[in-house]
Write a structure and sequence with these properties.
This protein is of the alpha+beta class. The chain is 42% helix and 20% strand.
């Protein structure tokens, strides 16, 4: 009976032959070699995700059997959970390697401690797992209620790339190691978004081999051994990345891989273990690119959350402005951006609306609103919110100065006519706004400046003032 090592090595050879078969089918069909569907294989009982060679094994096995479920578990696990296998079902062999062990040692003072020691020779074992579709009554895989925007994922991958990515209308995709940049055809040249992303992540996989990153050998020219190994790693990495992103990794790619499929096959037949070394490197490629991608998404979400948090508390971000001595503008943040209201000089609402751009700060939002209403920002003055909040109350009380005229009334009437001209109004319009150029005149303005001005110009004694209450000079445009 073969030991664990022989069993695992035989299984590896079988997997390599299966991969070569897939490659040859892709070569003859002029299609992508990896026509493998499925998400990242994982164990629902232990929450372990299968990686490296085991990942590739289960993806290929699931694809051959037509499984849509990425969940795999051992016989003991499914029994412990209260389930049983369907009749005549067979498991898939997975391997486990142990490179270190725990040993107990004593310190100089006699205290016993546990240390990790690397083994001289790694130990290997194996186990079998079964797909959830092979288990009677196992709960269905929950359906995720969302649609992937694949092209958006591509854009986010480009933004998260550790080197520049250039889209150029031409016929090839490549990573330039010396310049440390990626060139891919323009996205409109691809059959679909999946093909665009597949090519993108293949070249991003190459970029991780840079000396400042994972530092792999690239090979000097097409056809040499290192070149073939690097291409295999980039393609496996692309396969793993696409499955990590929950994309169907069966889309055709623009670039025809068949030219170097034969190089891959030669490298694998020469050393079957090369596939597993390539899988290990492909996991490193995938982990690095997915880490950067998720980090970019988190930063993007954080920026969006900052915008949302700013707009959630309306009272914390508001401003009021006096415009051109004729009107007022009030701006406040809202869920979708900014709400605003325009008032006339008597604080009657004359216009308002929403500005759907939460990325602007309140000053930029104000300027957009002013431009929309053709108001020059040079003529505005910000009002403290406390003063703005008092305006309706003050104006609602009809603040007035009532003056009884005597023999100097004619002079005051002339001054009222001058005030009307200065305000760009006729005397009738001036009177309609609270001014009456007759024996009893009502004037809405700030009290002290008006009283002083009228006393100076018409020689009215302060004691002859019958009624005085407060108001706003700017409210009246004076």
């Amino acid at each position: 009976m073969a030991g664990a090592f022989e069993k695992v090595m035989d299984s590896r050879k079988e997997l390599v032959e299966k991969v070569i078969q897939l490659m040859e089918e892709g070569y003859h069909n002029n299609a992508r070699a990896w026509s493998i569907q499925g998400l990242v294989p994982y164990n629902p009982e232990s929450q372990v995700t299968y990686r490296g060679g085991n990942r590739l094994r289960l993806m290929i096995a699931g694809n051959e059997a037509g499984y849509k479920d990425p969940r795999w578990m051992t016989f003991r696990q499914l029994q412990k959970a209260g389930y049983r296998l369907k009749n005549d079902e067979h498991g898939v062999l997975c391997e486990k390697w142990i490179f270190e062990t725990k040993v107990k040692t004593q310190t100089e003072d006699g205290q016993e401690i546990e240390e990790i020691k690397e083994l001289d020779r790694p130990k290997v074992s194996y186990f079998y797992v079964f797909n959830a579709e092979q288990v009677e009554g196992y709960p269905d895989l929950p359906v995720k209620e969302y649609e992937l925007d694949i092209m958006q994922i591509g854009d986010q991958l480009i933004k998260s790339s550790e080197c520049p990515v250039y889209e150029v209308p031409q016929d090839s995709a490549y990573y330039n190691k010396s310049a440390d940049h990626i060139v891919i055809p323009a996205r409109y040249q691809f059959k679909d978004a999946k093909s665009f992303v597949a090519t993108l992540v293949h070249e991003m996989g190459h970029s991780t081999g840079h000396s400042a990153r994972l530092n792999r050998k690239f090979g000097m020219k097409f056809g040499d051994e290192d070149y073939a190994k690097e291409e295999l790693r980039a393609e496996l990495g692309a396969l793993f990345i696409e499955s990590d992103l929950e994309l169907d990794p069966s889309g055709e790619v623009l670039e025809d891989h068949s030219d170097y499929l034969l190089s891959w096959i030669g490298a694998l037949r020469k050393d079957p273990n090369e596939l597993f070394r390539a899988c290990a490197d492909a996991e490193k490629i995938s982990e690095r690119i997915i880490h950067n991608y998720k980090l970019y998404i988190q930063q993007e979400d954080l920026s969006q959350n900052e915008i949302v948090s700013r707009t959630e508390n309306v009272s914390a971000d508001e401003a009021a402005y006096h415009l051109d001595q004729e009107s007022y503008l009030y701006v406040q943040t809202s869920e979708g951006g900014y709400d605003y209201t325009l008032f006339d000089r008597f604080f009657k609402e004359i216009d308002g609306g929403q500005l759907d751009n939460p990325s602007l700060n309140i000053e930029a939002a104000r300027d957009e609103i002013l431009a929309l209403h053709e108001i020059s920002p040079e003529l505005i003055e910000q009002i403290p919110i406390e003063e703005y909040e008092r305006l309706p109350e003050l104006i609602g009380k009809e603040p007035t100065v009532t003056i009884n005229f005597s023999e100097s009334g004619e002079q005051v009437e002339k001054e009222i006519e001058q005030e009307a001209r200065d305000a760009g109004m006729t005397v009738e319009e001036y009177a309609a706004n609270g001014y009456e150029p007759s024996q009893d005149i009502e004037v809405q303005t700030t009290v002290q400046p008006l009283i002083g001005e009228l006393q100076r110009q018409s020689s009215i004694e302060p004691e002859k003032t019958q009624k005085i209450s407060a108001g706003k000079r700017k409210t009246m445009g004076l």
